[in-house]
Amino acid sequence: MQSLLQKTNDERPLLEVKGLKKHFPITSALGKVQGYVQAVNNVEFTLNKRETLGLVGESGCGKSTTGRTILRLIEPTSGQALYKGKDLFQLKQKDFQKMRSKLQMVFQDPHSSINPKQRIGRAIEEPMKIHKLYDSKERSERAMELLNKVGLRGDQYYRYPHEFSGGQRQRIGIARALALNPEILICDEPVSALDVSIQSQVINLMEELQEQFDLSYIFIAHDLSVVRHISDQIGVMYLGELVEKAPTDELFSHPLHPYTKALLSSIPVANPEFKREKIVLKGDIPSPLNPPAGCKFHTRCPYAIKRCKNEEPVFKEVAKNHSVACHLID
Amino acid sequence: MNAKSIYSDEKIVSNQHQYNKEQRSLLIKRILSNRLMMFGSIILILLTIVAFLAPVIATQDPLAIDASSRLQAPSSEHYFGTDNLGRDLFSRVIYGTQASMVVGISVALISGFFGMVIGLYSAYNRYLDHVLMRICDGLMAFPAILLAIAIMAALGPKTVNVIAALSFVMIPTVARVIRSAALVVKEQTYIEALKSQGASGIRIIWVHIAPNTISQLIIQLTYVFAISIIIEASLSFLGVGIPAPDPSWGNIIYEGKAVIYNAWWMTVFPGMFIILAVLALNLFGDGLRDMLDPHSKK
Amino acid sequence: MEPLLKLNQLKTIFSTEKGKVTAVDDVSFEIHAGEMVGLVGESGCGKSVTSESILQLLNEKTTNYEGKILYKGKNLLELSEEQMRGIRGNEISMIFQDPMSSLNPVYTIGNQIAEAIMIHQRVGKKEANLRAIEMLRLTGIPSPEKRIHEYPHELSGGMRQRVMIALALSCKPQLLIADEPTTALDVTIQSQILELIQELREELDMGVILITHDLGVVAEVCTRVIVMYLGQIIEEADVKTLFKSPLHPYTKGLLKSIPHLDGDRTQKLNVIKGVVPSLQDVPSGCRFAPRCDFATEQCHENPPELLELENGQKVRCWNYEHILREAKDHAVTTSENK
C-alpha cells in the first residue's frame, strides 16, 4: 500500500464525501424553527473511477437525500463532497452549474421523468442545449447515437414519451444523463419501477455503459439482490446514518451490524426449498422527526444492550474497507 | 446492421406520418362522439361566421333611424322587428354579435397572456408568489362585475375600455388556474432532472412548465370568454359598456327594457343570442376539459 | 373436495376507443380452502384484472365478462349487484397495493372497520367496535384500543397495510385476494406482513390469491403458482415444481433474469428479449413466440393449448417436451464435464 504522500492525482478517489449532513428545519405556522429532521447525518464514503457504490436502506433512511445533496438539488447543511479534490459544496452556484455535466442523475419514475410534451430526441438534446454544446445538427446526431447506445432505434427520435414502455423510458432517461459525458451517475432506484424481465435488461445496459464510458455509479435502491449484482461496495443506511459499509462480497458473507443482518434475512429468495433463520424485526421504523437517542436502531434491535440506548456508536473501520457503527462490534 | 439505414430520413418521416394520422383520427373520433361538444362548437363557428360577415348578413344599416317604422313586430322585411328608433333589430343583433365576439376574444387573449405570466412566475418563485397572489386575492374579493363597473366609471364608456376593464378583472382567475397547474408540473421529476442538468429558471418556466399548462389555459379561457360576454352585456345594459348608438346585445336589451310590454322582440332576440353564446362556450369548454384533461372526467 | 373458487374460461373484455381488448383470455383455475396461490406475471399480463373480475370491480359500462366464476358452486357473474355486495368484503375480501388511497382519510380506522362489520354481520355498534379492536390485535398492531381512534395519516405504511388487512379480514372472509400487498412496503416490513397473512390463513382456513410480480415472495409463501402472460395462463404448478423445473420458456426466463443472492456477480443477467406487446396487437400464434428463443414456425402460426401433465403441472407451449429434454441433456453434460 502506498503512503498518503505518494498519492498522485490519478489515485485519489473520484468522489470523496465526508461528514455529509442535511437537517431540514421544521417551522411553525409563524415561521419559527421548532426543530430539525436529521435526514442525513455524518455520511461518508469514497467512490473510485469505474466503481459502483450501492446505497441501501428502507424508506426514510436518507439514501435519496444523500444522492440529491451531492448534486446540490438539495443544499447540504454541512460536510464536504470532494470531486477530484475540489469541494463541490464550496463552489459558487455559477461554477457549480458547469460542474453539473460531470455528475448526472437517473431517476426512479420513468413516467414522470421526461417532459410529456417534448419529443424524446429533444429531451436528450436538452442538456446539451443548456450547456451550449455542439451545433444543432451535431446535437441531433449525438442524440440518435445515444439512442442507439441505450438500445433504442435512432428513428424513435421524433416520438413522444407516452409511446414508450417504462423500460424504454428508463433507457431514454439514461441516454439523457449520458448526453453531457458525465463521470458519475447517481441512480435513484433506476429499476424498481420496472417489470422483472425489463429490470435485467436495464441492469445489463448500465453495466455495459459503465465499461464503455468509464462511469462511476452511486446506485441507490432498496432491492438488495439487485444492488448486490451491480455494486462493488455497499453502504447500508438507517434513519439518516450509514450503519455499515463494506465491499459487496464481504457485506453479504460477513454482515456485522444487526440491521444489515435483518435486512439480508428478509430478502425473499426465489427458491422454495431454501430455508434459513429469518430475523423478523419488531415494530416500525421510528419517525426521523423524533429519532431515538443513542443508537438509532436500538428500538428494533434484537441484541440491544443498555449502552445502545444512551450512547451513540461511532462509525469506524473494523476490517479492511469494512466499517460499521455498532457497540456490539468492538 | 448498417447504422445509416436505421435512421434514414424517409423512414422517420413515414413512421411519423402514419402515427400522426392515427392520432388525428382518434382525436376526430373523440370530438364526434361528444355530442354536446359538437353542438357547442357548431354554434360557436356559426357565431364567429356571423361576426365576421356582419356587413354581408345584416339586411340594413344598424344605425339607420327610420321614424316611420318604430317598434314593428318581426316580419319578412324586418326579421327581428324594429326598435324604438325604427332601426332594423336583426341587423343590430348581428352587429352586436360582432361586438360581443370582439370583446370576448380580446379579453380571453389579454387576460390569458397576463394570467399565464403571473401564474407561472408565482408558481416558480415563492417570494413572487406571496406578493402576486395577495394582489390577486384582493382583486378577487370584489365581485367581478362591481370592479368592472368601477373601472368603466373611471375610464368612460368605450369598447377599448370595456376590453381593458374585463381583462383586468379576469387576470386573477386565470393566474390562479395557471399557478395551480404549474405547481403540479413543477413537482414532476423531469423538472428536477432539468435542474440537475443545470437549466436556468427562465428555461424551465417557459420551455418546460408553460407547454404543460396550455391545455388548462385553453379550457379556462373558454369560460373567461363566456363570462366576459355576460359582463359586457351587463355593463352595456347599465349604460357603462359599449356606448350607444353602436349596437351590443346588452344595450339593445337596455333599450328594450322600457318597452318590454309592447315590444317583446327587443329583449327576447338579443337575450337568446347571449344565452346561446354562453351555453355554446360552456359546452365547448366542458368538452375540451373532458378531452384534454381526462382525470377530471366523471 | 369442491373448490372454493373455480374460474371457468373467464374472459374479460374492455371496450375502448380503439376497439375491443381482451385483457383476460380463457383463464381457468381453482382455489381450495386453506391454500395460498400465487398469481404472477408482468404488468399487463392480466393478473390484477382477473382479481378485479372475480369481484366485478371494473367499470360495468365498458367491461364484458364471459365464462364462469364459480364461488362455492354459485356463478358470481349471474348475481345481481345487490347480491354481489353481500359477497364483497364479507365472503371474498381484497387488499390493495396502496394502503393510503384505500382508506378513507376522514374517518378513524376504528370507524372504518366497525362499519364494515356492521354492514355485513348485523351487529350493534358496541359489538362491532369490540370486534374491530380484536381484528387490529390479530394483525399485530400494538395497543389497538388506542389505535382505533387514529386517522389513516397518523399511521406508518406498514401499520396502514395492517389496518387494511384487519379491514379485509373483519368479516372472516373465506377467500382473500391480496393484490401486491407488500410492494409499497420496505423489506423488513414486508416479511412481517407476509408472515401475518400466513398465520391468518392458517387460523381462518382461508383461501388466498396472492397477486405479485416478485417471484421471491411467491417462493416463500405460496403453495401453488399460476404464471400469466398477456392475458393467458401460460404455466401452473405447485411451488416446488415450478421453481425447480419450470417448463415454459417465459417462466424459465423470468427465473433466470432476477439476480440471485448466491449468483455469480460477474456474470451478466439473463434477459428476455423485447418488450411485452400491447393487448391491442396480440401475436397470432403463441403469444410469447416473438420473445421466445425456442420459437418454431408452428409457434408463430398456431396458438398452443394449456396442457396438463401427469404431475398436475400445466403448460401452454408447443415445445415443452423438447425444451425439457434439452435441459436434461444439458444438465447431464455439464455434470460430466465437472
Automatic annotation (TrEMBL), chain A:
<protein>
    <submittedName>
        <fullName>ABC transporter ATP-binding protein</fullName>
    </submittedName>
</protein>
<keyword id="KW-0547">Nucleotide-binding</keyword>
<feature type="domain" description="ABC transporter">
    <location>
        <begin position="15"/>
        <end position="264"/>
    </location>
</feature>
<dbReference type="GO" id="GO:0015833">
    <property type="term" value="P:peptide transport"/>
</dbReference>
<dbReference type="InterPro" id="IPR013563">
    <property type="entry name" value="Oligopep_ABC_C"/>
</dbReference>
<dbReference type="InterPro" id="IPR003439">
    <property type="entry name" value="ABC_transporter-like_ATP-bd"/>
</dbReference>
<dbReference type="InterPro" id="IPR003593">
    <property type="entry name" value="AAA+_ATPase"/>
</dbReference>
<comment type="similarity">
    <text>Belongs to the ABC transporter superfamily.</text>
</comment>
<dbReference type="InterPro" id="IPR027417">
    <property type="entry name" value="P-loop_NTPase"/>
</dbReference>
<dbReference type="Pfam" id="PF00005">
    <property type="entry name" value="ABC_tran"/>
</dbReference>
<dbReference type="Pfam" id="PF08352">
    <property type="entry name" value="oligo_HPY"/>
</dbReference>
<dbReference type="GO" id="GO:0055085">
    <property type="term" value="P:transmembrane transport"/>
</dbReference>
<dbReference type="GO" id="GO:0016887">
    <property type="term" value="F:ATP hydrolysis activity"/>
</dbReference>
<dbReference type="InterPro" id="IPR017871">
    <property type="entry name" value="ABC_transporter-like_CS"/>
</dbReference>
<keyword id="KW-0813">Transport</keyword>
<dbReference type="GO" id="GO:0005524">
    <property type="term" value="F:ATP binding"/>
</dbReference>
<keyword id="KW-0067">ATP-binding</keyword>
<dbReference type="InterPro" id="IPR050319">
    <property type="entry name" value="ABC_transp_ATP-bind"/>
</dbReference>
